[in-house]
Amino acid sequence: MLKILFINPVGTDAFDEPILKTINDVKRADVEVKVVHLSKGPIHLEYHYYEHLNMEETLKWVKWAENEGYNAVIIGCFYDPGLREAREIVSIPVIGVAEATMHVAATLGHKFSIIVGRRKWIPKMESNVYLYGLGSKLASFRILNFTVPMMLREPEKLKEAVISEARKAVEEDGAEVIVLGCTGESGFMKEIIEKIGVPVLDPVVVSWKYAEMLADLYQKVKLTHCKMFGYESPPREEGYLPKWEHR
Amino acid sequence: MLKILFINPVGTDAFDEPILKTINDVKRADVEVKVVHLSKGPIHLEYHYYEHLNMEETLKWVKWAENEGYNAVIIGCFYDPGLREAREIVSIPVIGVAEATMHVAATLGHKFSIIVGRRKWIPKMESNVYLYGLGSKLASFRILNFTVPMMLREPEKLKEAVISEARKAVEEDGAEVIVLGCTGESGFMKEIIEKIGVPVLDPVVVSWKYAEMLADLYQKVKLTHCKMFGYESPPREEGYLPKWEHR
Fold first, then answer.
1. What is the percent of chain A where pLDDT is above 70?
2. Segments of chain B assigned to CATH 3.40.50.12500
């Protein structure tokens, strides 16, 4: 039995149940899922400063997962907050929702468009596209004009807006693949694929399946992210690793 | 039960058994594997012209897989021969060994190096790296000076050469991840990961796990490559689709 932890790096339980439902619909029977959220901090990560505020408890959960024998961990936000930091402190695969989803998108069609809630999100997300090496695969960003709290409040309007912007991305921007750029846009992937006619990637679904794949590869052949160079762990003797790191 | 077909696009059964063994070591219990080879044609694909010669029977197997209810198909050569053509004629996920392995590599470390048999292979494979959008993630190519037939004849010497070139890629070229650039370099991933200390990706293992992931996503949420635009199927009425396509 493999175990994977999905962390909602926000101080609210509002996403736990819908995300658990989405994962349960697609997960392998032999993989156990746990979804957690933070005990405090901002309830969304639309601001970089909020990422900073939520980073410590997120990383604590990442380390907790490794200590508890989890086979992989997912950081559940399309900004991929704390991805590098997390990989420095654990050996189990750490999956960035955006990184995993974009790479899968790149194998399903010529170019992808990312549907974001607000224009505010684009600069960091576009930077991540280039950071992940996928600049040439990006057709466009499309904006819903929904904050994360609005997404939670108005799921039907959200779905309509996603369908409308996804269509425009296909028809006007040359997208062959649609990436939903927020875990708040999750839960209606199959329905939207049928409506749009091109692949539509729910980042919760795709990052979950990617995590299953990496968890399996880690268990079976010890494959995980490189622990030398970029993700080298801070030396214990420098004394900056917190107590929870030592458990 | 999911079923995945692994096609060795070469006119020899020499790879079937070792590849089946490699897959059996890592595959999910609930996924069925079948490995096939071509009835005729070149026994390796070191020449582009050989790809051309082997293309038709390869595509026939791809279509056969869809007709027989397979959930995904892998084209087992690191040149990814016929990937676009195959995606045009079927809806089931078609996995290119190189495409899948390189994208996974990109999520495991800063840059990857590809270990090829001969310098002859580099131009097409480097072109593929850029085609897949991953030019900025490429540290280097490293050359073993092994033809494919030599790989089959001298597996121990091959392993030594891979370890030696992989080390140089890490130490001299800035690679954090090693990609074995031929299905002939398969079967010793776990051993090499322990020796080199960075992730080493066996293209058979990784493309198999990637295929499991996509097979699952296709079955559960109908996700597959985009069938519009780049992979649009030729119209039946033009009459160029062969008889085996119609089964």
1. 99
2. 2-96+205-245, 99-203
Interface test with A, best of B132, B173, B226 (most A CBs within 10 A): B226
8 Å CB contact of A106 and B107: no
Number of H helices and E strands in chain B, helices first, is 9, 8
CA distance A71 to chain B (A): 15
Summarised one tens digit per residue, pLDDT across range A92-112 is 999 999 999 999 999 999 999
To the nearest whole Å, the CA of A228 is away from the closest chain B CA by 7
Q: Which of B119, B45, B56, B114 is nearest to B89 (CA)?
A: B56
Fold of B99-203: Rossmann fold (3.40.50)
The CATH fold of domain B2-96+205-245: Rossmann fold (3.40.50)
By DSSP bridging, strand B2-8 and strand B31-37 are: parallel
Cβ neighbours of residue A195 closer than 8 Å, sequence gap 6 or more? A163
Chain A residue at shortest CA distance from B195? A222
Residue in the block written with tokens 């490293």: B142
Give CATH 3.40.50.12500 domain extents, chain A.
2-96+205-246, 99-203
A130 vs B contacts (CB less than 8 Å): 136
Are A111 and A139 spatial neighbours (Cβ–Cβ below 8 Å)? yes
ipTM of the complex: 0.93
**B15 part of contact set with chain A, CB < 8 Å:** no
